[in-house]
Amino acid sequence: MFEDAAPVDVALAPSVEEFAERYVRPERPVIVRGAVKDWPPSYKWTPEYLKAMYGTRILEIGVSTNGDYLDYAERLKIGVEPKIAFAKVVDSIFAPANADEKCRVHQQPLHTWGALNEESPPIRYVLRKFITKNIWMGSTGNVTKTHYDTEDNINIQLLGRKEIILFPSTQLDELYPRSAWDYMSNFSRVEIEKPDLSRYPLFNRATPFRAILEPGDFIYIPIYWWHQFRTLEASLNVNFWWQARVDQALRRHGLHYWPRMARDRYLHRTIWRTVVDSVSSFVAR
Ligand SMILES: O=C(O)CCC(=O)C(=O)O
């Protein structure tokens, strides 16, 4: 689907200055190819290596019969995800006995993963202090539905392939975010592959972009750009979200995200982090 969508720009190992100037400053997405060859996870993190390092670690995973994890955050909150040894997850994703059983390791912060954390320092294109570095792993056919994040994102493809559909951050109304009180308030109500235009007529004027991520590529997803990820081949990714500036945090999308953050007691941490980071970047100038 979306084969006719506009392609996301592609850059071949640009300099950091060029990346910052052409893409990050104007908040324009780009796929960067060939820029992480020397980054240890690119040449070290095979399924066998990961199993040998952390195979016995027990973690919570998402499971799905159709690749759709729409209520995943809700399920995590009420603690109903299976707990399983990492080696088993790696096998069921990269060497599945039954292709209909899908699972994923969703946004696991890497700072608790000792050696893997040390082997994955921020790549040079991570331009500001990063908030989290996560590992993602998932079966062919998984889909993370359309949503936006409140930070700039660099998502690095280590194994497998993913399709990403993006919509500009300016199209907040066209994508109909869920209620500000919803646990997934940053998710769109529109099923972008079969939109109900009678309920969501403005989606008609939304303008999709499409990108395919291959091993060794990363995608820069600017703050508030909508994105859907589809796993085309069993995948391993690492992403970095870095701190938004105060003026970015105060945009409509950020404000829409805050009510549920306040209710779930994350807001004060976000405000504090944003202020501290803005003051320290100002002082460092
Ligand atoms: O890989 C995925 O399924 C989702 C990744 C994502 O949403 C992100 O990096 O912001």
How would you describe what is shown here?
The chain has 285 residues and is of the alpha+beta class. The protein has a single domain, classed as Cupin (Jelly Rolls, Sandwich). It has nine helices and 13 strands. Strands 1, 2, 3, 5, 7, 8, 9, 10, 11, 12 and 13 form an eleven-stranded mixed beta sheet that branches. The protein has a two-stranded antiparallel ribbon with strand order 4-6. Helix 3 (47-54) runs antiparallel to helix 5 (86-94). The mean pLDDT is 92. The structure holds 2-oxoglutaric acid.
Morphology call: globular
The average pLDDT value, as a whole number, equals: 92
- Could you list the spans in which at least 5 consecutive residues all have pLDDT below 50? none
Number of helices: 9
Under the CATH scheme, which class? Answer: Mainly Beta
Order of helices and strands: EEHEHHEEHEHEHEEEEEEHHH
How many domains in all? 1
Q: Quick one: CATH superfamily?
A: Cupin
Please give the largest β-sheet. 11 strands, mixed
Domain JmjC: 107-257
Pfam family, one: Cupin_8
InterPro entries: Cupin_8 (IPR041667), JmjC_dom (IPR003347)
Protein name: Cupin-like domain-containing protein
SSE blueprint and pairings:
Layout: E1 6-7, E2 9-12, H1 16-24, E3 30-33, H2 40-44, H3 47-54, E4 58-60, E5 62-64, H4 72-77, E6 83-85, H5 86-94, E7 102-109, H6 114-118, E8 130-138, E9 143-147, E10 152-167, E11 209-213, E12 218-221, E13 226-242, H7 246-249, H8 252-263, H9 267-284
Parallel strand pairs: 1-11, 2-3
Antiparallel strand pairs: 3-12, 4-6, 5-7, 7-8, 8-13, 9-13, 10-11, 10-12, 10-13
The structure holds 2-oxoglutaric acid.
